[in-house]
Amino acid sequence: MSKYALITDATADMPWELVQELDIDVMPMAVQFDEEEFMHYADEREMSVEDFYQRIREGGMPKTAQITPNTFIEKFESYLSQGMDVLNISFSSGLSGTYESSLLAKEELEAKYPERKIYTLDSLAASIGLCFFMYQLGKKRQEGATIDELYQYALDNRLRVAHWFTVDDLNHLYRGGRVSKTTAVLGGALNIKPMLIIDKDGHLVSSANVRGIKKAIAYMVQKLEQDGDGGDTVVIGHAVIPEAAEELKETILKKGLAQNVILSKIGPIIGTHVGPGMFVLVFYNKDAGKR
Questions:
Q1: What H or E segment, with its residue span, contains residue 189?
Q2: How far from 228 is each of 122, 163, 251, CA to CA, in Å?
Q3: Is pLDDT at 230 greater than 70 in this prediction?
Q4: What is the pLDDT of residues 40-83, one digit of tens each?
Q5: What is the pLDDT at residue 1?
Q6: Residue 236's CB: how many other CB atoms inside 10 A?
Q7: Residue 17 to residues 14, 21, 97: CA-CA distances in angstroms?
Q8: How far is it, in rounded angstroms, from Cα 7 to Cα 5?
Q9: For the chain, how far is it from start to end, CA to CA, in angstroms?
Q10: CB-CB contact of 238 with 173 (8 Å)
Q11: Phi/psi at 281 (nearest 5 deg)?
């Protein structure tokens, strides 16, 4: 076990193999269909991602809830009581109150464990962006970074995480208040796909419009060519559209834009708000503090 715990939550949408390889503790989160509730774990033990999206296609309307301060207290204390320090990386505060819950837990536990280090950081990232960031942090820890060094690295680099994504059905974003009704209706009728980003404040904003998945893929590749820092790893995420993910992966490898392309599924927590068909590319921007 590592000398300090590296923790995130289920919005990170990390492949289970990476979670195990990097020894990251991914806190599960609740999803509810009417009166039925299940916990989404990184290993999909209670419901697979594919089954979740099938439920949506059949008319299901899921709901999610943020992690409570008490849940963070229990998680942090499970390590602190063993003499370990804790570094928690939270889902963007621009999209959820989860980070605030972690701060409340930190404040309470610092009084109880004054000899231990408890860090919690607002990633200002979401879904595959958080997956990419946790991958980078996990690799740094494997290379020997101390908890202080890793926390500083996270602070210095969180705004370099460039998310470029699109969705298939804008009505899911409309229901969540992310786009207007007009945008949702016109986008669906004309097959217009808004290219969305997470801005420097961690909010979801529209940056451009393209028509169709092929042009969305081309746009993402263009952004990687223009803005990418030349790092060896990018992450592609998809909500059960593996063919598009594979096409983007092959294009990136063929152009030599990355050596390591990680594919991951967008899980139920984010999927509740975007629906099936979301598609995303994440990489480090070459300009520090710019997405």
A1: helix 181-190
A2: 23, 11, 15
A3: yes
A4: 999 999 999 999 999 999 999 999 999 999 999 999 999 999 99
A5: 44
A6: 26
A7: 8, 6, 28
A8: 6
A9: 34
A10: no
A11: -125, 135
